[in-house]
TrEMBL record, chain A:
It comes from Sphagnum jensenii. Keywords: ATP-binding, Cell cycle, DNA replication, DNA-binding, Nucleotide-binding, Nucleus. This is AAA+ ATPase domain-containing protein. It is found in: Nucleus. Residues 301-458 form the AAA+ ATPase domain. InterPro entries: AAA+_ATPase, ATPase_AAA_core, CTF18-RFC_complex, P-loop_NTPase, RFC_lid. Belongs to the activator 1 small subunits family. CTF18 subfamily. Residues 31-95, 237-296 are annotated as: Disordered. Heterotetramer of subunits RFC2, RFC3, RFC4 and RFC5 that can form a complex with RFC1. The keyword Transmembrane does not apply.
TrEMBL record, chain B:
InterPro entries: AAA+_ATPase (IPR003593), Asp/Glu_racemase_AS_1 (IPR018187), DNA_pol3_clamp-load_cplx_C (IPR008921), DNA_Rep/Repair_Clamp_Loader (IPR050238), P-loop_NTPase (IPR027417). Residues 33-192 form the AAA+ ATPase domain. Gene3D superfamilies: 1.10.8.60, 1.20.272.10, P-loop containing nucleotide triphosphate hydrolases (3.40.50.300). Keywords: DNA replication. This is AAA+ ATPase domain-containing protein. Pfam families: DNA_pol3_delta2, RCF1-5-like_lid, RFC_C. It comes from Sphagnum jensenii. It comes from the Eukaryota.
Length: 930, 354
């Protein structure tokens, strides 16, 4: 009932005020009081009161009305207006069924509230009071409730804020006044433009719209988890803002408009708190909203957002604004905070589990800024790992979330596993980085949702700059601003700082300034792969793409070429790691497909690399760092030779690093080999000549083809001599055959069995002559022979003695002595082997299995223990040697032989003199004595 | 024990190849004192043999009683403390060491050890020299810093110790050090000398050595006495009695370089160059000095090269060898030489055969 009235009233008011001069006074006068009356509700209802004068015709109309039949319930009437439009005749005005608009004669005719009006002649009429609908497109000041807060409150707020500002300013002034009386106050009060004009709401963001939406949508997916089932209501908000965003793209949205960004504090309940808003927008369908996950579905698989892009594009701003927009309280961890693994983890946990106690009831949203700046090395990696671990914990438990979402956080595994409490993320985490491929982020990159920031379009940036300049009263022109934006690669932060700087200096921005060095250029470091890419890839020449702003530097004769050169030179020198760059070029250059029929280009490129290397060496050894300035030009020269338009496949330079590692290993091996050699040998060789001259012949000497793999007692004297020679050489060079890996079953194999593991030389000098794809021409000894040699090397002293004894016994026919000696010798070695069994494992094993009787004699000895062994040993050994010497003295011939033998085994004798009784302690086999 | 060590002359009188130098050295120390000495010459010429014989001449048999020590040294440089481990071979009368093992800290090692020796100056007993001898190997690999620090220490402590320096190339020893020493060049023995030595050894070992085989071994050895003797022994082990056409084994790395040269001559392309690069890396990994690789490669290439090109190729080999010495990353320069050769050779092939 009220609505039509309202419309009509408005319409009438509009029409009437427009043509008030044409209408006759009568009608105008009659109607005017009504608004007055409405506006002043203070008029008492008493019907008998007198009122002020009015025009005479008015009573006529009013009086006329009761005569007409009782007013029909005013349904909707466009009709009543038309007659008034057409003509001014009072009759027509009176007649139509408008009367509801007009006052009633009797108060009883009005249902609802009414006002009494007294005419100038003393007549009393009554006007019905009708309510004005709140939603109206008319911004008439009479309508209340259009604003979310009454105007009074807002004015109060503004006044209060201004008051506070003034107070703050005066306080500041006072403080500064204390310090220095005549400090320029205005300078201090001016805030940075970057701060001042930072986007405060989602619609103000300058960054790429697509990215903005994606971020917002991702954040929205948390609603289910964070806010419970409030998804639909918030989506209305998003949609509303988006609609507005489309409609008023450039303008800055009024703060605190009808859709306040502050979420109602009781967000955990009340699904329909702002239902009226929602309904009105429900009908419109937006594809973007349809793609949101259905209610109740688990969170999207990527629970961390990773924003990356060059500095100054507004990543941090986006994160803050979007989080605020979605009703989160932003908790930021940035590079200035301590970010080792433990503290970071604690901070994340704080952020996702705690609520602010200071009244701000919004849930937290964690923003980790500059995450790529997290320290390299183990600590920083640990920090990122901690985060990744939480994310993974999240994935493992998608179903539990529903029940426990209200808790805000969930401890996993306390029931199941007990010891490790892995916390899972229950609040959104946004990470921000500049370099997506920083090594520290490797793990995170795989689990996070990655958004790469693109440069905003120049137009957008320029229009914002223009707006700011005009607000600040700084004169500039669009061309210069465009040039500035291009120059800084749309880094709005540096643009603003530059502008503010110039403004302060009262300079005006000119195009020339931008191109010349007046304005500092961003010191951009690019990743090493970018550098290599630049070297190997030439951008296709696009004539149209030349930006006009920068070209008109007066002295840039070369145009595009010059610019290219300058850009690359700067790029290369900014990176700085020339050695790595060269390594990469060297690694990849032969894979590039540049036209080079007679390898001329390759030669040249390699020469430049060599030059770079020589420069590097000179810089290092003589500290001539000024030479560093020439390094980038080598890269440029190589680029000139090999750059192609196609996209190169670039690999990390591994081979040089691998080569260095391998060589270090081999060098280490050689030096340890040198250390193992007998001093008289090692002093005459140098590491270099070992590798060059000695190894190859030595290996052939060590593997004589004539040696038969038979037991040593079966060898003829010549062969025995040879054997002794060989063993002697091995000892002198500190070489042994050893099992490649000590495994358990080798100790159990029967002596003579072929499975003893692979015996290899130790140190592995044969690796020095191993080349890939090169067949080594060396004969290798058979496994049995190696086995034997291993044995012999341990035995050598005894063997040489035995050899002497054997020959002597042959000649002097002192068989019994030899026999006795042999048995004694066996005893000795058995005892000894009990003593240091673990030391000589291989021979010890053989001993065990070699002779049954030996093992039977062994058992009591073991029980007796070491003491007895020690007691026996000196006696036995001296006895052994006495016998030995005696036999030598007995025979003159034998003596000579012994002398030669002694000379041959000098290194061992030498050791003996040092108190090392190697000669006797070695374990022996019985068969060696036979 | 290898024949190399077995038949190494122990005294200056017994040397077979550098008799003249040995005689001079003997006269030099006959007075009981000697200046600092710098021995230089190619490997396998007999520098160390001479030094050892010299020491024996000075101190008698006891100089041969050596022991190897792996001793940790502690150096205090200002506030810094450097700890390094060095292997030294020493007797009562002398210390031998390889200061370049200490890397860039070689300077401290040199100073420290000389000071230490000066502190423990032996008493001037009868029959004892009043000084010790410090033998420094591979002086040419010492950093310039170390060499400069050496020159003052040499003078300051000359009362307590004599330095015997040993290196391959005197050109890498700074002028100041060279002028403080008596320089003795030990050149590579001539082929005849090597042949004599081989025949001598064969005689001692009661071997019948056919002169043809001996000649081939000598040729193979590149005037390196050590290699000749080792080679002889290897031949003896592999096959005895000797035959005239017995295989004389070349070292593996030389065979490998022959392979590389074949690769280069068969195809000249970036792809092949890449293959060669891999092989060069292998050689370098096995501690073969890059100069030697370049030299050997040139020799191998020369064998199959048209005489027209030889001069040019030699020129470039020298050019890149020089750059190699100036630079750090041998592979760049070696590869540059290979590429250059490929380029020249390819052009030549195209010009000749169309």
């Amino acid at each position: 009932m009220e609505e039509p009235d309202l419309e009509e009233l408005e319409w009438m008011a509009g029409q009437q005020f427009a043509q008030e001069q044409q209408d006759e006074d009568l009608y105008l006068d009659a109607y005017l009081p009504a608004p007055d009356a409405l506006a002043s509700p203070a008029i008492p209802q008493n019907p008998k009161q007198t009122s002020q004068d009015k025009g005479t015709p008015a009573p006529t109309i009013l009086i006329e009305k009761p005569w007409s039949p009782p007013p029909p319930p005013p349904s909707r009437e466009a009709l009543p207006t038309s007659p008034r439009e057409q003509g001014g005749a009072p009759a027509i005005a009176v007649e139509p069924p408008v009367p509801c608009k007009l006052p009633y004669r009797r108060a009883a005719d009005i249902d609802g509230e009414f006002l009494s009006i007294t005419g100038p002649a003393g007549e009393r009429v009554y006007a019905a009071k009708s309510e004005v609908k709140k939603e109206s497109y008319n911004s008439s000041g009479l309508v209340k409730g259009l604003l979310s807060q009454p105007i009074e409150t807002m004015i109060q707020q503004v006044e209060h804020a201004m008051f506070e500002q003034v107070i703050a300013a005066s306080e500041k002034k006072e403080q500064e006044g204390d310090l220095q009386k005549d400090a320029e106050a205005p300078t201090l009060n001016e805030s940075l433009w970057v701060e001042k004009y930072a986007p405060r709401s989602f619609t103000d963001l300058l960054s790429d719209e697509q990215t903005n939406r994606e971020v917002l949508r991702w954040l929205k997916q948390w609603d289910l988890c964070v806010f419970g089932a409030k998804q639909s209501s918030t989506s209305g908000e998003v949609q509303a803002s988006l609609r507005r965003h489309v409609s008023q793209k450039q303008g800055r949205a009024p703060r605190g408009g009808p859709f306040s960004y502050s979420r109602p504090s009781n967000w955990s309940h009340s699904p329909g708190s702002n239902g009226t808003n929602r309904q009105s927008y429900k009908s419109s369908s937006d594809t973007f909203l349809k793609s949101e996950p259905a209610k109740g579905s688990p969170l999207s698989e990527q629970s961390v957002l990773l924003l990356c892009g060059p500095p100054g594009l507004g990543k941090t701003t986006l994160a803050h604004v979007a989080a605020k927009h979605c009703g989160y309280r932003v908790v930021e961890i940035n590079a200035s905070d301590d970010r080792v693994a433990t503290t970071l983890q604690a901070k994340i946990l704080d952020a996702i589990q705690m609520k602010s106690v200071t009244g701000d009831k919004r849930p937290n949203c964690l923003v980790i800024d500059e995450i790529d700046g997290i320290m390299g090395g183990t600590e920083g990696k640990g920090a990122v790992d901690a985060l990744v671990e939480m994310i993974n914990a999240e994935k493992n438990l998608p179903q539990q979330k529903e029940n426990e979402a209200e808790d805000g956080f969930i401890r996993k595994g306390s029931k199941k596993k007990g010891h490790t409490a892995v916390h899972r993320l229950s609040r959104p985490v946004i990470c921000i980085c500049n370099d997506l491929y920083a090594p520290a982020l490797r793990a995170l990159r795989q689990v996070a949702r990655v958004h790469v920031f693109m440069q905003p379009s120049t137009n957008r940036v320029v229009s914002r700059l223009k707006y700011i300049c005009s607000t600040e009263g700084y004169k500039t022109n669009a061309r210069a601003l465009t040039a500035l934006a291009e120059h800084t690669e749309c880094d709005i932060r540096s643009c603003l700082n530059t502008l503010q700087f110039l403004n302060r200096k009262k300079h005006s921005l000119k195009t020339v300034d931008v191109a010349s060095q007046v304005i500092g250029r961003k010191d951009m470091t690019s990743s090493i792969f970018d550098i290599w890419g630049e070297v190997f890839q030439r951008k296709r020449m696009r004539k149209g793409a030349v930006i006009q702003g920068i070209v008109d530097v007066p002295d840039s004769g070369g145009g595009q070429d010059y610019k290219d050169f300058a850009r690359l030179h700067e790029l290369f020198s900014n990176h700085g790691d020339y050695e790595l760059t060269m390594d990469g070029i060297h690694e990849n250059i032969l894979q590039m497909r540049y036209h080079d029929a007679s390898l001329q280009k390759t030669v040249e490129a390699l020469e430049w690399m060599g030059d770079s290397d020589m420069f590097g060496q000179c810089i290092q050894s003589k500290q001539h760092y000024f030479l560093l300035a020439y390094q980038p030009s080598m890269e440029l020269l190589i680029r000139r030779l090999v750059a192609q338009e196609e996209r190169p496949q670039i690999e990390w330079p591994r081979s040089y690093q691998r080569f260095r590692l391998d060589r270090a290993v081999k060098k280490e091996m050689i030096s340890s080999w040198l250390a193992a050699m007998v001093a008289s040998v090692s002093r005459s060789v140098s590491p270099a000549c070992l590798a060059q001259d000695i190894v190859t012949p030595l290996l052939s000497i060590l593997s004589p083809p004539t040696l038969r793999p038979v037991a040593s007692h079966l060898l003829n004297p010549n062969e025995k001599e040879e054997m002794v020679q060989l063993v002697d050489t091995m000892l002198a060079f500190g070489l042994l055959y050893k099992h490649s890996k000590p495994s358990h079953f080798t100790s159990k194999t029967v002596y003579g069995g072929e499975l003893q593991g692979v015996l290899v030389l130790d140190p592995p000098i044969d690796s020095l002559v191993k080349f890939k794809d090169h067949s080594v021409g060396h004969r290798e000894l058979s496994a049995t022979l190696r086995q034997m040699l291993t044995h012999e090397v341990f035995l050598l002293p005894s063997l040489s003695c035995l050899l002497a004894v054997a020959t002597s016994s042959e000649k002097s026919a002192e068989a019994p002595t030899a026999d006795a000696l042999a048995t004694q010798g066996r005893d000795v070695t058995l005892n000894a082997s009990v003593g240091d069994c673990p030391k000589t494992e291989v021979s010890g094993n053989k001993l065990l299995v070699g002779d049954q009787s030996a093992s039977s004699t062994l058992t009591p000895n073991i029980e007796v223990g070491k003491v007895e062994v020690k007691k026996h040993q000196p006696y036995q050994s001296t006895n052994f040697f006495e016998r030995f010497k005696k036999s030598g003295q007995n025979d003159a011939k034998l003596k000579g032989e012994l002398a030669t033998l002694q000379r041959d085994s000098r290194p061992l004798l030498y050791k003996f003199h040092e108190g090392f009784t190697n000669a006797v302690k070695r374990p022996m086999l019985v068969r060696d004595f036979l | 024990m290898l024949w190399v060590d077995k038949y190494r002359p122990r005294t200056l009188d017994k040397v077979m190849v550098h008799t003249e130098e040995a005689q001079r050295l003997k006269n030099l120390i006959a007075q009981g004192d000697c200046p600092h000495l710098l021995f230089y010459g190619p490997t396998g010429a007999g520098k160390k043999t001479l030094i050892m014989a010299l020491l024996r001449e000075m101190y008698g048999v006891s100089a041969e009683k050596v022991k190897v020590e792996n001793k940790p040294w502690k150096v205090e440089v200002g506030a810094r403390k450097i700890e390094l481990e060095l292997t030294t071979v020493s007797s009562n009368h002398h210390v031998e060491l390889n200061p370049s093992d200490a890397g860039f800290q070689d300077r401290y090692v040199v100073q420290l050890i000389i000071k230490e020796m000066a502190k423990n100056r032996p008493l001037d007993v009868v029959g004892n020299k009043g000084f010790k001898v410090l033998v420094l190997n591979e002086v040419d690999k010492l950093s310039k810093d170390a060499q400069h620090s050496l020159r003052r220490t040499m003078e300051k402590y000359s009362a307590a110790c004599r330095l015997v320096l040993c290196c391959n190339s005197a050109s890498k020893v700074i002028e100041a050090v060279r002028s403080r020493c008596l320089n003795i060049r030990i050149n590579a023995p001539s082929r005849d000398e090597i042949l004599d030595v081989l025949l001598f050894i064969a005689k001692k070992e009661n071997l019948v050595l056919p002169p043809e085989l001996a000649g081939r071994i000598v040729l193979q050895s590149n005037r390196n006495l050590r290699r000749a003797i080792l080679c002889l022994e290897a031949c003896r082990v592999q096959q005895y009695p000797f035959t005239k056409d017995q295989v004389v084994q070349t070292t593996d790395w030389e065979q490998f370089i022959t392979e590389i040269s074949n690769d280069i001559l068969n195809e000249q392309s970036p792809k092949r160059l890449f293959l060669v690069r891999g092989k060069l890396y292998e050689l370098l990994t096995n501690c073969i000095p890059p100069e030697l690789i370049l030299k050997r490669l040139l020799q191998e290439l020369m064998k199959k090269l048209d005489s027209e090109l030889k001069h040019e190729v030699c020129h470039w080999a020298a050019f890149y060898e020089h750059r190699l010495q100036l630079g750090q990353k041998a592979i760049f320069h070696l590869e540059a030489f290979v590429a250059k050769f490929m380029s020249i050779y390819k052009k030549f092939l195209i010009a000749t055969f169309g």
